[in-house]
């Protein structure tokens, strides 16, 4: 498995200029691959005209929440996780 992720134009709620960060996955945490990949995805969204980048993370995934926080992402909302009964997703956002 390789480090992977994508960004695509998609607004969060009624806020225009958003880019969604999806399928972000790093097979070997702690080796810097995630930091490099996220920096590239942030830059890609920014130069494509995005005003902010957003994503969702499982509420109990403290490692991912901490990782995104270090890159300037902050919680902006929560939503139910349709794939996990009773699960909660945290919406994270970072302005450019």
Task: Give a brief outline of the structure.
This protein is α+β, with helices and mostly antiparallel strands and 96 residues long.
Molecular structure report:
With 96 residues, this protein is an alpha+beta fold. It has one domain: Gcn5-related N-acetyltransferase (GNAT) (Aminopeptidase), CATH 3.40.630.30. Helices cover 25% and strands 38% of the residues. It is built from two helices and five strands. A five-stranded mixed beta sheet has the order 1-2-3-5-4, with helices on one face. The mean pLDDT is 93.
Order of secondary-structure elements: EEHEHEE
Low-confidence stretches: none
In CATH, what is the class?
A: Alpha Beta
- The number of distinct helices, counting runs of at least 4 residues, comes to 2
Approximate shape: globular
Second-tier CATH architecture: 3-Layer(aba) Sandwich
The figure for the number of domains is 1
Give the number of DSSP strands: 5
Proportion of strand residues: 35-45%
CATH superfamily: Gcn5-related N-acetyltransferase (GNAT)
End-to-end distance? 30 Å
For the sheet with most strands, the description reads: 5 strands, mixed
Spatial order of strands in the largest sheet: 1-2-3-5-4
CATH fold description: Aminopeptidase
Report helical residue fraction: 25-40%
Radius of gyration: 13 Å
What is the residue-averaged pLDDT? 93
Q: Find the structural class using helix and strand composition.
A: alpha+beta
Helix-strand layout with pairing:
Blueprint: E1 4-9, E2 18-25, H1 33-47, E3 52-58, H2 62-70, E4 74-80, E5 88-95
Parallel strand pairs: 2-3
Antiparallel strand pairs: 1-2, 3-5, 4-5
């Amino acid at each position: 498995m390789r480090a992977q992720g994508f960004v695509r134009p998609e607004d969060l709620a009624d806020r225009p200029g958003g880019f969604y960060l999806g399928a972000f996955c790093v097979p070997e945490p702690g080796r810097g691959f995630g930091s490099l990949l996220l920096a590239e995805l942030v830059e890609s969204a920014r130069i494509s005209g995005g005003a902010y980048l957003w994503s969702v993370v499982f509420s109990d995934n403290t490692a991912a929440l901490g990782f995104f926080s270090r890159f300037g992402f902050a919680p902006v909302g929560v939503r139910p996780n349709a794939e996990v009964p009773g699960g909660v997703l945290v919406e994270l956002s970072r302005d450019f």
